[in-house]
Design a protein that fits this description.
The chain has about 190 residues and is an alpha+beta fold. The protein has two domains: about 5-90 and about 175-185, no CATH class; about 95-150, DNA Binding (I), subunit A, CATH 1.10.30.50. The protein is about 15% helix and about 25% strand. The chain contains five helices and eleven strands. It has a five-stranded mixed beta sheet. Strand 3 and strand 4 form a beta hairpin. The protein is elongated.
Length: about 190
Amino acid sequence: MTLSTLHLKTVLVLNRHWLPISTVTPADAFCHMVAGTADAIRISSDAMATVKWDVWRSLPVGEARSIGTKDGRVLVPTVVVLNRYDGLPMCRPSFGFRALWARDGGRCQYSGRQLAIQEADIDHIMPRSRGGGDSWENCVISDRIINRRKGARTPTEAKLRLIRKPTVPRPVPVTHTIENTYDINDWDTFLVRT
């Protein structure tokens, strides 16, 4: 692996209870390990073990992802665990179709019908053409047919009624938002599958 592709990869960070809390660059992971605030997790097909920096830097590299240092090549860990931090940060989902879909349970907020993803649209309760913005309180998942029929009218004008008032979702543990976008097998043990 070259340095140019290495900087694109990330390292999963676990709190001391082995719950995922973030991702960092390999350089940040090494800084934590050298400072003694984190240990790498060595994962094999049948076991997992934490490894301190002094041992980690002398592990054989082979064909594994590694980075060159003045003392030779060093494995890049896929997962590190913090030694003292036990917090679980909370966050709100980013506003967008997927988050609205999750908040509304994939149901049309006018008919209550469970939708297939291709049947759904984002409806602006107060249409954008009339000053309505992209916000949690102004957007809902709607059946495409109903949304087209509603057009640039308010629900009242279109003789529609929301089944529930849209709200900002509650914060969720960051554990639920970390995705394995790099398909790193070692992460699968720790991440919540949706």
